[in-house]
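G.,

No rush on this.
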Amino acid sequence: MYAGITDAIDPDPNRPNNPDVVANSVIDADGADQAVYFHNSETSTSMLGAFTITAADHAIYCNGTSPVIENCVITENEHTREDGAGMYSYNASPTVNACVFYSNWADYGGGMAIHDCWTRVINCVFCQNELDCDGGGLYIENEDVLHEIINCTFFGNHTGIKGSDRILDGTVDISAYEYDDGC
């Protein structure tokens, strides 16, 4: 696993969110547009958990859905045309819990980009994500929508033109988060 970021995943070896299980349960998209695509009005009964997701334009793409995503490592995804290499959420309301977004690259929101939707992000780590424009770890662009970013850690994310680890437009409830420039 990646130095210093395994604490976001439960260390109990008998549970599916064990770091060893996650590290060995890999979804390798091999350059595909999406590794996981939620787009058929899925609800919170649709769950994705205990995977490492890599090598996609968007590791996870949510469009008009409300899935639960937890205990995943989203790493080394690269989107050269748009936002959110780790996760892109549009017109959706996903809940993301105890995930690690590590070393993803996009134009906006290397780790995660949120557009026109409510999103709840809990106990996640955003580390060493990069992009050309704004929001290295997390990019949010919404009007009049409440987002919940709870107990998340942002460190070592890099941005290009405008800087800033998080770009927030709209109403955001950010509580108990940590921010550090180093990783």
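When you get to it, here's the other one too:
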Amino acid sequence: MTERFEITTLLQKELSQIPEVFGSLLAGSPEQPAITKESVHHFYKHVSGKPLIRPPWFFDVEQQGEGIVDITTHLVDMIQWEAFPGIILKKEDVEIISEDIPGWLVANEGAITVALDIHVTEELRQEGIARELVNRIQNIRKESGFEVTDKIEVLIERHELISDAVELHGEYIGTQTLAESVQLTDSLENSGSKRIDIDEDVYINIRVSRL
């Protein structure tokens, strides 16, 4: 366990053995654990200046279990080594309890567990709006009978729900739809535009013109 030899880990262990500094461990529960550990593990990283190439079986949960190889073993080892040095744990001393992670959607099937972070940041929300606008513009291209290679220009009516996404991701929208320009405008009524819904009972107008 290489973590045992890191200076920060060594100091943490020594400090945890000084009651005047650390205090004493409290009885824990699934809601309020006495000790928590988190690990950030990278699928791709450099070791000694070279890319670390992992074999295919590294990612096979049937062979390696639901944790990424030995991450969970490392965490358990570190807790025992730091907080309970010299104490040998037996199998019957360990109870594994599964708890839902707030903000995550977890599903299990057999030996496979998948956890999905369902928290939507503002950045992700704007990217999602941009992708939805790409879809709508592509549909307008198709309905208008444009050729796949036709270049276009796009005018989008301003609205507080989509304007930021257009300004941030206008280049992406243009690349995906072959638009030479993607611009916002204050009004598009009665100008050959298409009316689309962007939310419940919220509509904007988009004009797609072939160049």
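The chain has two domains: 2-117, 122-210. The beta strands are 46-47, 50-51, 104-109, 112-117, 152-157, 179-185, 194-199, 202-210.

Enjoy the weekend,
O.
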